[in-house]
Amino acid sequence: MQSSGSADGSAIRLLIADDHDLVRDLVAEHLTVQGEFEVVTANSLAAARLSLSREGPFDVVLLDYALPDSSGLGDLAALVTEAGEAKVVLFSGQARPEVVQEALRRGFRGYIPKSTPARALAEALRHVRAGAIWLPEGFEPAAARPSPLESLTPREMEVLQAIRAGAMNKEIAARMAISEVTVKMHVRSICGKLRARNRTQAAMIASELLA
What we know:
Blueprint: E1 12-17, H1 21-33, E2 37-42, H2 45-55, E3 60-64, H3 73-82, E4 87-92, H4 97-105, E5 111-113, H5 118-129, H6 154-164, H7 169-176, H8 180-194, H9 199-209
Parallel strand pairs: 1-2, 1-3, 3-4, 4-5
Helix pairs in contact: 6-8, 6-9, 7-8, 8-9
């Protein structure tokens, strides 16, 4: 006998937002044929917002981390509020622990890798629908990992924000009234604390974690 979608026997209404057609459609088809999921799909953040307003409410939203019209968790987290009572779960090929931690802080109800087997995916969604926070087995609890941005000094955060905006060292030095040598020292420290190979990767990490 097939298990029911929820305690009252109704189907679990699921919105899948993913721009990879093959992944999105395969996941939707697998869950739909089980009979306990009612699935709606979207290929962008804008389309997901439209589906929430026109076809909601949903029980769970499976939200791809790398949607083309999203610049990071700030954009995605806005959908958590717009989703109302729906539980929003991060859906990604591979998300760093600090990104997952920040997502949980912003109201996401878990992280499901795209490599999750089909049967396990359905089980994870049931747990999320029931109110649990779901993380992959063996994934270190996010609460045990402080956000790397918390280790930056106010000056380093100012430099990092300038790097994100595309400013070069000379521009940052003039803006902050410090020497270029000091800017380079800050950049080195930022890269070390964020475990970034260079300023470009540091800016990418910041974009993932900041609104």
